[in-house]
Structures are given as structure tokens and as C-alpha cells.
Amino acid sequence: MKDVLTHETLAVGSYRFAVSRLIPHMTQVALQIHKKELMRETPNFAKQKFLYRLSRSDYERPVGKGLREAGLGDADLVNLSAIHAKIGPFKGLAFNNPSPQTEDLYIKSINTTVDQYRAFLEEVRTDTLVLPNCDFDSGKPTKAAEYSLTDDTYATLLAQLSERKFDLASAELRDNVHEFYSDLSAPIETKKDQVRCQNVLTALG
């Protein structure tokens, strides 16, 4: 993990804070600002919105009970956010109520994600998990020139492996990297940087 996350403890702590406190808290603030509009557009809003698939007790067990309901101190944040969203430098972040179609896609995506995650957890439990090597954004198989960020990631990975003389690289990882660079005529993003491209060629040997 330290090879990927330079400051592992800070990165994990920031993630836990965002998931357990920041995101839920800002969701509460957004709901306070726009609750009347949402209820006006969707009369059964309170019953249908944010139906979490994980119970509160199950969530608090690993995360803790530090979450709280929005209180008096949040009123100022609500009002300030509403003002800045209209006239301040953050007006680009102004909230727009989603259309019914967008809302439906969002809810379906959440349900699909939760179902898939639970299926993966079951495969982990039975030691049968096999993750596809695909681009999570497009869903397409990972290959050179398919996605610029993938090209950049493979170049970084190859540089790290080469620096350590491939001492921790499994046979499967070696094969995967060589397969990725099997067609060097492809318009790989790395080619735009001559120095980095040469480093990739040198590392491939």
C-alpha cells in the first residue's frame, strides 16, 4: 500500500472521514436547503429518498457512532451555502433538482452497485473472486491507448517495477504488463512525453 499511497495513514483517515462524516453531513445540509422543493416535486419524498440498504446499526459497528443529526449550528452553514450558491464564487456548485429520468438512473445504479458489491464479498468469502481487468469508466477491457489515464498508470507501474528490478512482480503481473505494451504502434498517451516513452521502452527491455 505504501508504494501506491505515499501517506497511507493520512489517505485512509481522510477516506474514512469523508465517508463517515463529511459526505453524510453535507447531504443533510443539501436536504435542509432544498427539502421544500423536493417534497413539492415528489410528495412521497420522505419515504422514498435515501433508502439505505445498510442498517444504521450495521453501519455504526465498523465506523463508529460519531455521526449526528443536523443541528442549530448547521443553520448558518445552510444559509451561507444557499447565498454563495446563487451569487458567490461557488455559484457553479448550485444545486439543480434532478429530472425523474436522472433520478431513476441514479437509484438503479446504486442498487446495482450494492448488489454487485455483495456478490463480490461472497466470492471473497468462498475464495472464488476473479476481478475482470477492465476500465471502470467505460467497462471496456484494459488495453493500451484505450484510456489516457490507464496509459499513464501503466507507465508509472512499469517505472516502479523496473526501479525495484521487478523483485516483487509475479509472473502474472509481468505477463500483464508485457501484454499491455504488446502493440507499441498504438497511439499510447505516454508517447507524448519523449523522456517517459523512452523510459518505458528501456524498462521493457
Largest sheet: number of strands, sense, barrel closure: none
Total domains, how many? 3
Report the helical percentage. Answer: 55-70%
Q: Mean of the pLDDT scores? A: 76
Low-confidence stretches: 66-70
Name the structural class. mainly alpha
Query: What is the helix tally?
Result: 8
β-strand amount: under 5%
Global morphology: elongated
Based on CA atoms alone, the radius of gyration comes out at 23 Å
Short description:
The chain has three domains: 8-96, no CATH class; 98-128; 148-204, no CATH class. The chain has eight helices and no strands. It has helices spanning 8-41, 45-48, 56-63, 73-87, 100-125, 148-163, 171-180, 194-204.
